[in-house]
Amino acid sequence: SNQLLAGKRGLIMGLANDKSIAWGIAKACADAGAELAFSYQGDALLKRVNPLAAQLGSSLVVPCDVADEASMDALFETLKAEWGQLDFVVHAIGFSDKNELRGRYVETSRDNFTMTMDISVYSFTAIMQRAEKMMSEGGSAITLTYYGAEQVMPHYNVMGVAKAALEASVKYLAEDLGKDGIRVNSISAGPIKTLAASGIGDFRYILKWNELNSPLRRNVTIDDVGKSALYLLSDLGSGVTGENLHVDAGYHVVGMKAVDAPDI
Ligand code: NAD
């Protein structure tokens, strides 16, 4: 335990279960002394989110569907009434039709393209519009992205295009909000077996590939992501904004892995 976020209040969005990246981040924040609020999508998730929130000493659990402006307004009205001030935001939300997370990107439908961009990209901007108003003393926000934004990864398809737009929006948000002392960054996490990831075709193969080919020769965990998130959300990251921090066991630097036992 440390006190890196003592006296700080943060909103965690995107907790679905104890495999969620949001859970790894929430645990690291709670361990650092933060007071947390959680938003969840749809009544079905409440029975999972409530006990997890309670485990970290939080009873501020609020519904929010980021496709719905009124739902986002209601979340921030609740936060304003309960807290007044907000110090950090974790946006760990993404969605696309899993039928289009396999096969060819070129087949992407207009409807799913629009929906994927809305939920996975615009929502972060929409949340920051509202969060900004509660961060009069400055703040820090992070979102989650993936290497499929930078390079073509199998089956990532429209989600790769959406993550590229998300990473660009992080830079624009960093500039707009920097004047108010609000930092905005992303974490590019390596593949982790979560609910969202299980929608991606051949995900087990992708996990194995990353384990074998990353410099650390392993996959990352939600706790690895949580520790890096703590750096960006706390004063340790005070000079960092507009950044995309790869928490991927180094996979993004590899062009071609050295042959461990060369005999060619
Ligand atoms: P997850 O399924 O645990 O979390 C995804 C969350 O998005 C869920 O809590 C879901 O309720 C929420 N969500 C979807 N649509 C929503 C909506 N309309 N309104 C509100 N919430 C909504 O999976 P995860 O892997 O922890 O995903 C979190 C983030 O991390 C996503 O942005 C994902 O793209 C990103 N990411 C995941 C991986 C990975 O391999 N798992 C790697 C890099 C980045």
From TrEMBL:
InterPro entries in the cross-refs: Enoyl-ACP_Rdtase_NADH, NAD(P)-bd_dom_sf, SDR_fam
Gene Ontology molecular function: any one: enoyl-[acyl-carrier-protein] reductase (NADH) activity
Keyword match Amino-acid biosynthesis: no
Active-site residues, record numbering mapped to chain: Y146 (proton acceptor), Y156 (proton acceptor)
Highest taxon, organism lineage: Bacteria
EC annotation from Swiss-Prot or TrEMBL: 1.3.1.9
Residues noted as binding NAD(+) in the record, renumbered to the chain: G14, S20, I21, Q41, D65, V66, I93, K163, I192, K193, T194, L195, A196
Class of enzymatic activity (EC top level): oxidoreductase
SUPFAM superfamilies, per the entry: NAD(P)-binding Rossmann-fold domains
Entry's Gene Ontology BP terms: fatty acid biosynthetic process
Pathway field: Lipid metabolism; fatty acid biosynthesis
Keyword annotations: Fatty acid biosynthesis, Fatty acid metabolism, Lipid biosynthesis, Lipid metabolism, NAD, Oxidoreductase
Reactions that this protein is recorded to catalyse: a 2,3-saturated acyl-[ACP] + NAD(+) = a (2E)-enoyl-[ACP] + NADH + H(+)
Family: Belongs to the short-chain dehydrogenases/reductases (SDR) family. FabI subfamily.
UniProt protein name: Enoyl-[acyl-carrier-protein] reductase [NADH]
Lineage, uppermost ranks: Bacteria, Pseudomonadati, Pseudomonadota, Alphaproteobacteria, Rhodobacterales
